[in-house]
Q: What sequence folds into this?
């Protein structure tokens, strides 16, 4: 599904960011979860919450009709 593809790409990007940036940076997500169902969205937010607790600054932009 589209949601699976987007989640796979997001996971790969997060892994690369963690490898290349040794210090904590900030991440901006603009409609990154548009293709996610509720469960996939919750799981992704849990991962981002974990990163935030490690010191990453995370900004999520989202529009819901």
A:
């Amino acid at each position: 599904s589209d949601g699976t593809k987007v989640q796979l790409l997001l996971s790969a990007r997060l892994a690369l960011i963690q490898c290349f940036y040794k210090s904590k940076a900030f991440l901006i997500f603009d409609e990154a979860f548009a293709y996610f169902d509720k469960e996939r969205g919750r799981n992704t937010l849990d991962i981002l919450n974990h990163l935030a607790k490690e010191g990453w600054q995370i900004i999520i932009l989202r529009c819901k009709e």
About this structure: The longest strand covers residues 26-30. The beta strands are 26-30, 57-61. The longest helix spans residues 2-20. Residues 13 and 19 are 10 Å apart (CA to CA).
